[in-house]
Amino acid sequence: MIHIKTDRLILRQFDLTDADFMLALLNEPSFIQNIGDRGVRTRADAEKYLENGPMASYAKNGFGLLAVTLTETGETIGMCGLIKRDALEDVDIGYAFLPKFWSQGYAIESAQGVMKFAKEVLGLKRIVAIVDPANAGSVRVLEKLGMTFEKMMKLSEDDIELKLFSVSL
């Protein structure tokens, strides 16, 4: 079980009890605009997304997207974790938070915890991140994490051009 603690946060593996949270997050207009529409419209869809996404990744890769919760209240506020995509040579870091938790340092804090886990537990030497060039907030987070812009790329032929950032661990 992956369990990462930071000053204010606990990052833990998702399970099916997180379906309502995932349904809300994946249908946030900001998630759809900046990350993409995952077609999750019902609680059953959210359970399937969790099973086929984060939970499948834990089993296959030993890592995946994690639920980010506030230490103080236990409230789930977002997700952050590592993803292995076929289109990328390196493991990439991803994150998304409910808008009411933006601009409070949670993305940086959780990503720092994930990067430490990637280096110390998984032994990764490098992590990348992909971001829509129009998502200025996410670009700032990546830069604050010490990541540098490497190149423009597409994950697939019909995808938009994305910025690829990287950092050595």
CATH first level: Alpha Beta
Q: Which stretches are poorly predicted, pLDDT < 50 over at least 5 residues? A: none
Q: Characterize the main sheet.
A: 5 strands, antiparallel
Give the CA-based shape: globular
What is the chain-wise order of helices and strands?
A: EEHHHHEEEHEHEE
CATH overall fold name: Aminopeptidase
Number-wise, the strands total 8
Oligomerization state = single chain
The spatial strand order of the largest sheet comes to 1-2-3-4-5
Helix content: 25-40%
State the distance separating the first and last CA atoms. 22 Å
CATH architecture: 3-Layer(aba) Sandwich
Q: What is the structural class? A: alpha+beta
Beta-strand content: 25-35%
- Provide the number of structural domains: 1
Overall pLDDT confidence:
96
Question: Can you count the helices?
Answer: 6
Spell out the CATH superfamily: Gcn5-related N-acetyltransferase (GNAT)
- Rg, Cα atoms, Å: 15 Å
